[in-house]
Amino acid sequence: MVDTEQLQALALDLPEVTGAVSPEGQFGFEVGGKGLAWAYLARPAPKAKRVLVPGVVAIRCTMETKELLLEVGPERFFTDDHYRGYPAILVRLDHIEADELAGLLRQAWKIVAPKPIAKKYEV
Which end of the chain is more exposed for a tag (fewer CB within 10 A), N or C? Predict the structure, then answer.
């Protein structure tokens, strides 16, 4: 089980990642201006305003990884209509261990880090 404080520590441990968790629980983390993980906002009803879903993070990944995670870990990973066809997976923080989350964040970093930044670091 991971909380947003641990999520923040894991994300900010990656090279040149910036971001924070607000007092309201909203968060986002990026490298070189590109998002790698952010708070999940869902629509409670069609056309309704999106609202923060505590305990869930969206993390960039490849579509292949997304499909695999959805298949092997439906208790930890899911998607919704907004994220269908988009290369990010929704993760339930209370169902994932810190080491697995750290691995997903590393992969997201590798996907979004601009080349000049990525060349400087072994992640």
Answer: N
